[in-house]
Amino acid sequence: MHHSPPQVVSGMKYVITVEMARTSCRKGDVEKVCTVHEDPQLAAPYLCTFHVWSQPWLNEISVTKQECHH
């Protein structure tokens, strides 16, 4: 590296990795306990990484990047 300009950072960046799988519940069924699909192809888990930018003093939070893989 020849030159790296300084950066002014005003917030927190979080990198969150989660394992997710499909269920038979609909999005509006938040009150239910949802089990993973019985069909093995539909039940295959995803590994997802989310980059989240937070500036709590501005009451702002946003997902800046997301990637999911089987």
TrEMBL record:
Q: Which domain of life is it from?
A: Eukaryota
Among InterPro entries, the record links this protein to:
Cystatin_dom, Cystatin_sf
Identify the taxonomic lineage of the organism of origin.
Eukaryota, Metazoa, Chordata, Craniata, Vertebrata
- State the name under which the record lists this protein: Cystatin domain-containing protein
Recorded GO cellular component terms are: cytoplasm; extracellular space; vesicle
Q: What SUPFAM superfamilies would the database entry show?
A: Cystatin/monellin (SSF54403)
Whether Disulfide bond counts among this entry's keywords is yes
Q: Which family does it belong to?
A: Belongs to the cystatin family.
Give UniProt keywords alphabetically. Disulfide bond
The protein's GO terms of the molecular function aspect are: cysteine-type endopeptidase inhibitor activity
Query: Any keyword Lipoprotein?
Result: no
Q: Where is the Cystatin domain?
A: 7-57
